[in-house]
Design a protein that fits this description.
Length: about 100
């Protein structure tokens, strides 16, 4: 639970610095209810392409996030890697202009 809170806090801070790519729909994940406390953050993380969810059915288009599942080390490393790539691209373009 602590890992998820820390991750959401980091993502919330970074979303102010990066433009969001809005390809997420209003109900992107079928297992995240509309009243869920982190729904906005999950949707923003998906829009920014930091997370993809835990399940996707190509035939039906159903996508799941599993918000109550513990964050695995592999998932955490994937998110950090995506964030690092985005930051390094921004730094490279601004430093050498």
């Amino acid at each position: 639970m602590k890992k998820i809170l820390v991750l959401l806090l980091v993502l919330a801070m970074l979303f102010g610095a990066f433009p969001a790519f809005s390809y997420a729909e209003s109900d992107t994940f079928s297992d995240v209810p509309s009243g869920y406390w982190a729904k906005q953050y999950i949707e923003e993380a998906f829009s920014g392409r930091y997370v993809e969810g835990t399940y996707f059915n190509e035939e039906t288009g159903e996508r799941r996030f599993s918000p109550e599942s513990p964050l695995t080390i592999a998932q955490f490393c994937t998110i950090l890697s995506r964030m690092y790539c985005r930051v390094s691209r921004l730094v490279d373009t601004h430093v050498y202009e």
